[in-house]
Write a structure and sequence with these properties.
Two copies of one chain form a homodimer.
Chain A lengths: L5 H11 L6 H13 L2 H17 L1 E2 L6 E2 L13 E8 L2 H10 L4 E5 L18 H9 L4 E4 L5 H14 L5 E4 L15 H9 L5
Parallel strand pairs in A: 3-4, 3-5, 5-6
Antiparallel strand pairs in A: 1-2
Helix pairs in contact in A: 1-2
C-alpha cells in the first residue's frame, strides 16, 4: 500500500482502534477531515485537544465534567440519597433533559461485555458502594440500557446491592410514546402487557 | 444543557458538521475519544494535525498525497494516456490494490449531489479536460460508484468528453465474485444477464 501516504495510514490505523470503527469507516472519517476547509479542521482538532485537557470524570459520580465535582453533585438542591446508575455520561444528560429527576447520577463508564473483555473491574462500580454507605442512600435506580448487555450489567449491580437496606428500582419497560402498536417488537409488547397499569 | 461542559458541546458540534455524523454519533465519538488512554488520544490528534499539514491533493490527478505530484503520476511506468476517473482517493487505492491498472487516476473529490448542493463546479473536472488534451489521452475509464449519484456523475462526464477522440469506458456491472445468485438484487442480476459474455 505504498501509494497511501504514511501519515494517512497512521491516522486510519488510530481511528480504526476506536470502538465502532473499522478500516472503511476510519478511511471515510480521515477523508472527510481532509475535505473540510483547513481552518475548520484545525479548529476541530484544537477543540478536541482542549476537551482532552479539560474534561475528566467527576470524582463523585463519574460524569464527564470540566470541574473536580460536577455541577449536579455539587448542587445543594440535589438529593444525594437517590442515585441513578447509567452506563455513560450521555445517558445521564438524556435523563437530565427530562427535568424529572432530582437525585444524583452514577456513571459506570460502560457495560459488562465479555466479548469486548469488559468485566466488572473495568466499570466504575466500587465508588457506587462507597457512595451508598457515605450518603445512606435510599434508592438506586438502575438505568442501564434495555439491551442484553445493559440488562446483564443491571443484574450484576442488583446482586451487589441487594444486601444493603435500600430500594433498588429500574426504568419501566413499555411502549415508547408516539409509537405504533403494530410496529412494536414482541419483547416490548409483552413487557407492556406484563406491566400494565390500572387507569 | 448547562450540565454538558462547553468544550464537550463544542467538539460534538464540530464533529456533527462532518458528513455522515449526527448529534448522537458525534456524542459517541467524543465519548470514545475521552475514554481512550490519554496518551493514545493525544497521539491521535497529533497524527491528524500532521495529516492536515502534509496531505493535499496531487496537482496532477487530485489523489491525496504527501508529495506535490503523487507517486503514481510521477512514475515513468504508468501510461498517462489511460485515465481512470474515480470519486475519491480511496477508490483509486482500491483499484491500485488489484494491480491490474497501469494507467493513471483522476480523483473528482466527490459526486454530483443536488441534495447536498454539490454541482459540477465543486468537482475536480476542469483539470481532467486539461489532462486529456495535454497527454492525448486514448481512454477514460469512468469508475464512479454504481449508485444513482455515481451514475449521474459518470453520465455528466461522459457527455463532457464524448466530443474528444478517445474511448470512454466504464467498469462492468455484474455479479460480485463469491456471491449467491438468489441474493443478488434485481438490478445487478438484470445487468449481469444483459452483459452476459460468450464462454
Amino acid at each position: 500500500m505504498n501509494y497511501i501516504p504514511d501519515i494517512l495510514k497512521k491516522v486510519i490505523e488510530d481511528i480504526s482502534n476506536l470502538p465502532g470503527y473499522g478500516e472503511k469507516s476510519a478511511q471515510r472519517l480521515a477523508i472527510n477531515l481532509l475535505k473540510l476547509p483547513r481552518g475548520e479542521a484545525v479548529d476541530l482538532i484544537k477543540h478536541i485537544a482542549q476537551m482532552l485537557d479539560k474534561i475528566h470524570p467527576c470524582k463523585e459520580c463519574g460524569i464527564y465534567t470540566d470541574q473536580e465535582i460536577c455541577p449536579i453533585c455539587s448542587s445543594e438542591e440535589r438529593d444525594k440519597t437517590h442515585i441513578c446508575v447509567v452506563e455513560e455520561s450521555f445517558d445521564a444528560y438524556a435523563i437530565e433533559k427530562t427535568g424529572k429527576f432530582k437525585g444524583v447520577y452514577h456513571v459506570l463508564g460502560g457495560r459488562l461485555s465479555p466479548l469486548e473483555g469488559i468485566g466488572p473491574e473495568k466499570l466504575n462500580i466500587k465508588t457506587l458502594i462507597e457512595r451508598i454507605k457515605k450518603y445512606q442512600v435510599k434508592e438506586v435506580i438502575i438505568a442501564t440500557n434495555p439491551t442484553v448487555e445493559g440488562e446483564a450489567t443491571g443484574n450484576y449491580i442488583y446482586n451487589l446491592l441487594k444486601k444493603y437496606p435500600l430500594n433498588i428500582t429500574r426504568l419501566a419497560y413499555g411502549l415508547p410514546f408516539g409509537s405504533v402498536l403494530e410496529n412494536a417488537d414482541d419483547f416490548t409488547l409483552s413487557k407492556a402487557l406484563e406491566y400494565r397499569v390500572k387507569i
